[in-house]
Automatic annotation (TrEMBL), chain A:
Keywords: Heme, Iron, Membrane, Metal-binding, Oxidoreductase, Transmembrane, Transmembrane helix. Heme binds at residue 82. One of its GO terms (molecular function) is electron transfer activity. NCBIfam families: succ_dehyd_cytB. This is Succinate dehydrogenase cytochrome b556 subunit. It comes from Azospirillum baldaniorum. Pfam families: Sdh_cyt.
Automatic annotation (TrEMBL), chain B:
The gene is sdhD. Membrane-anchoring subunit of succinate dehydrogenase (SDH). It is found in: Membrane. Part of an enzyme complex containing four subunits: a flavoprotein, an iron-sulfur protein, plus two membrane-anchoring proteins, SdhC and SdhD. InterPro entries: SQR/QFR_C/D, Succ_DH_anchor, SuccDH_FuR_B_TM-su. This is Succinate dehydrogenase hydrophobic membrane anchor subunit. Keywords: Electron transport, Heme, Iron, Membrane, Metal-binding, Oxidoreductase, Transmembrane, Transmembrane helix, Transport, Tricarboxylic acid cycle. The lineage of its organism: Bacteria, Pseudomonadati, Pseudomonadota, Alphaproteobacteria, Rhodospirillales.
């Protein structure tokens, strides 16, 4: 070993690759913060609807614009990710699925479910719209 | 507590169960309870949003005038903001190490969440009562 002690070096930050579980964990936090910011849009939408038809039209116009739809897409993906991974956290809280193989499978389920639900939502959403 | 116990904690500490941080598991538990509540609320909310994506003002108002929709929207807003401020508090506690900055930013986030939550509730009630 490079430190001469015969003991393994702790993770070397410049070459350390985040394990998939760690990547999903920090993504849970990032999407959570993003969703909290997204509540501003929710508040605007509701308050505008309560204020006047004109104010509501402005909010709807923004949501329907390219930038608005981009935000809504990111928001839906973040929401589904946070929802799916949140359920996984509840499974962990129940003391289940802590084995490495189960964690790997959980990664795939969370990513797959979030992607499928997002695509499905947008297919239905654009068809209804 | 038996006199030969190996624990350094007093019987009172154990009975209170608040641990070294003095807050116990209340915050953690609140996050879990709101998370569970948000599973059905989120599903309802997403469906509601999809159904009213291109809705005009009259259709939107008609949606929230229904008592059930108003109830669900109020619950969604309240539980969402409760969950958000609890989560954001943990994020701030993890990354902001200056005590004053930490407390001030937590207070600011909580205040903002309360204001936004109240605004959402008032908006829904106003629409629901047809004011």
């Amino acid at each position: 070993m490079a430190n001469g002690s015969g003991r393994p070096l702790s993770p070397h930050l410049q070459v350390y690759k985040l394990p998939r579980t760690a990547l999903l964990s920090i993504t849970h936090r990032i999407t959570g913060v993003g969703l909290a910011v997204g509540t501003l849009l929710l508040t605007w939408w509701l308050v505008a609807a309560a204020t006047s038809p004109a104010a509501y039209e402005r909010a709807q116009h923004f949501i329907g614009s390219f930038f608005g739809l981009l935000l809504m897409f990111g928001w839906s993906l973040a929401l589904y990710y946070h929802l799916c991974n949140g359920i996984r956290h509840l499974v962990w809280d129940a003391g289940k699925a802590f084995e490495l193989s189960e964690a790997d499978r959980g990664n795939q389920i969370v990513i797959g479910a979030a992607a499928v639900l997002t695509v499905l939502t947008w297919i239905i959403g654009l068809a209804v719209w | 507590m038996a006199s030969n116990s190996k624990t350094l904690r007093s019987p009172l500490q154990i009975a209170r169960g608040l641990g070294s941080a003095k807050h116990g598991t209340e915050h953690w538990w609140h996050q879990r309870v709101t998370a569970i509540a948000l599973v059905p609320l989120t599903i309802w909310f997403v469906f509601g949003v999809i159904r009213h994506l291109g809705a005009d003002h009259a259709a939107f108002v008609a949606w929230l005038e229904s008592p059930f929709s108003a109830l669900m929207m109020v619950l969604t807003a309240v539980v969402t903001f409760h969950h958000a401020q609890a989560g954001l508090q943990v994020v701030i506690e993890d990354y902001v190490h200056n005590e004053m900055a930490k407390i001030l930013s937590i207070l600011a986030v909580k205040a903002l969440c309360f204001v936004l939550g109240a605004a959402c509730v008032i908006a829904v009630l106003k629409i629901s009562f047809g004011a």
